[in-house]
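Incident review: delayed structure delivery

Summary: a single-chain prediction request sat in the queue longer than the usual turnaround. Root cause was a stuck worker, restarted by the on-call engineer. No data loss occurred. The affected request and its eventual output are reproduced below so the record is complete for anyone auditing the incident later.

Affected input:
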Amino acid sequence: MKRLLSPLSLNPDLGALLLRLLFGGMFTYIGYGMLANYDTIVPMFGDIIGNLVIFAEFFCGILIALGLFTRFAIVPAFITMVVLYIIAPFDAKVHAFIFLIMCLPLFVAGGGKYSLDYILFTKKQTIE
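Output delivered after worker restart:
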């Protein structure tokens, strides 16, 4: 109980994992809906923009949830949410704004210790 009330961070890597899973899961879910309705979604945005939105939401959402190339995958998601915030009607701006705000700590924190980035890109220390 004392640790819970402490002003010190409990576990920033666990926080990054939870944020990544929530953001990536929601983003992938939305992107999958767009991918499943590809024929109706792409004409609304145009071919190139529609494909980029689906890429940002579905494929980058998967990368973010896995913690693979996390900072690179956040950039298309961030750009998509900025554009959506600008062009969306007022009632849809709230969702875009929430995703936009979630991008910032994910970009700063990166994947954290519990990510594929950490597993693949940290040097293993050998004991001699």
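Verification: The chain has a mean pLDDT of 87.
Action items: add queue-age alerting; document worker restart procedure.
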